[in-house]
Each structure stands twice: as structure tokens, then as C-alpha cells.
Amino acid sequence: MSRISAKFAELASNDPQGKRAALIPFITAGDPDPGQTVPLMRALVAGGADIIELGVPFSDPMADGPTIQRASERALSFGVSLRVVLGMVHEFRKTDATTPVVLMGYANPIEAYGAESFASDAHAAGVDGVLVVDYPPEECGEFSRLLKQFAIDPIFLLAPTSVEARYADVAQLGSGYIYYVSLKGVTGAATIDLDDVARRIPAIRAKVGMPIGVGFGIRDAASAARIAGIADAVVIGSKIIETIEQAPAGLAPQLVTAFLREVRTAMDAISEEGKT
Fold first, then answer.
1. Residue 64 bears catalytic tag
2. pLDDT tens digits for range 133-186
3. What is the DSSP-derived secondary structure letter of residue 139?
4. CA quadruple 135, 150, 53, 61: dihedral sign
5. Angle, CA 108 vertex, CA 120 and CA 115 arms, to 5°
6. What are the E-state strand segments in the chain?
7. Pseudo-torsion of CA 76, 63, 119, 102, nearest 10°?
8. Coil, strand, or helix at residue 13?
């Protein structure tokens, strides 16, 4: 069982009614500078993260809004490459052998690295899942099989515009969880239509047979709590990046932990309400 599957199983065993959603925060590796990435990952765990999504900086992050674009630019200015990101995961693993880490990024760095070399090195570093925004499942069979050979979960995106044929593709090729993009647009944009998400999640879950995390547009504890009442996991990124961006020197980990604890507390309150 992968660390990701084990985490969802742990959450279910701690809450037999299945009401406790996983908290999945996102940060960009190398932002605000490479030396802070591992401390920030530890700060996320201290704040209640169940799984960490670690963004691989890229020069053309087409799915990301201005906030995460700036984070990528800052990281790239320090020369943070995919190889450097794997080194960060390896360093994190020296003190945390249990928190799943998912790399989220784009195809170009992986293709430049070499898919097989990447999968092997990612496994050695302690990566648990990989989400490549511009690898659609219908073109990703070989890469998905390669990741699974190295015990890494291939994670795929679904969106409000996804057709049912896409559900079947991700059910066959994916594992770990599905990342449901809750709105049309880029990260950090617009406001989630909770009613629409609530309508779609049960049908998707029935088709794909794995946990569903919802992201894009979740900016505070209240919106995270509402999603926690619908989905299996809550993914939150842009607001964390903003917190890091605005933090006084040296205080980013502390502020990130405090923010995430507010989110986790709100999510757990929804879980308790669901039991009554």
C-alpha cells in the first residue's frame, strides 16, 4: 500500500463514518528561496497537512494564476530544477518517513530529465505521487505504468468540463486520488460553486473508485470546511503562497502553520457535525 493510500485508510479508520477529509496544502519548491522549502514542508505537517503537494517550478505554468506564477519565477531565479526538487524531498524524508509527498508540475522538466530516470530518482527520493498538468490520461499510458513500477501514484485532473470517457481513463491509469478542479480557469481564480461541486463529486467517485480531492479557489478556512463536507480531500495552494510571499523575513513557516491549523480546525468541525 502506498503512503497515499495508507493516509486515506488511516483517516477512514480514525473516522468510521468517513467524514474526515484529508488536508492537502500546496507550496512551490524553492519559494521564497531553496533553503526554506524543507522547513516549510515541516511547517505544513505541523499545521495538520495529511499530504503535501510540492510544485515543481516551471517557466510557463499555464494552469496557475499570478500568485503561483510568481512563486515559480522566484524559485527559478535560484536555479531550482527538477533534480533540486528531488533533493528537497530526500532531505524532508530524513525526518519524516510517513507524510505523502506529491510532485505537481508540467511535462517539459520530466521529458528533459528522462521519464525512466525521473521515476527511478523520484522513488529513491521518497516521492509518493506525481501530477503532471499537461499529461492527459489518453496520452499517458506508458508514463503511468512506469510510475507504478516504481510504486509512485499517477494522479490526474478532472474538471467541470470533463466527459465521462475521461472518468474511465483516469480510473484505469490513475491511483492515489483524483484532483478535481472545481472551476474553469487558473489557480486562485473566481469563487467555487459549491452546489455544482456537490452535484458532480458523487458521480465521479462512483466512476473512478478512488478518493477525490478538490482544489482551485479554496482560499480560507470557511471554504475549505465546506469542501470537506463534500469531498475526500481539500487542496489549498494560492492562499498559502500569498502567506509566504507576505511574511516578514524568517516568519513564513510559523505563519503557514498557524493558517493551516485554522483550516484543519474548521474542516474537523465539519467532520464532527457530520457524525451527529
1. yes
2. 999 888 899 999 999 999 999 999 998 888 888 899 999 999 999 999 986 544
3. G
4. negative
5. 20
6. 22-28, 52-55, 101-105, 129-132, 153-155, 157-158, 178-181, 212-215, 233-236
7. 90
8. helix
CB 153 within 8 A of CB 123: no
Cβ atoms 204, 212 nearer than 8 A: yes
Which of 64, 121, 153, 169 is catalytic? The answer is: 64
Residue pLDDT, tens place only, 17-60: 657 999 999 999 999 999 999 999 999 999 999 999 999 999 98
Question: Which residue out of 10, 15, 33, 53 is catalytically annotated?
Answer: 53
Note the CATH number of domain 3-270. 3.20.20.70
- Hey, where are the domains in the chain? 3-270
Q: Identify the residue whose cell numbers are 517557466.
A: 59
Active site annotation includes 91? no
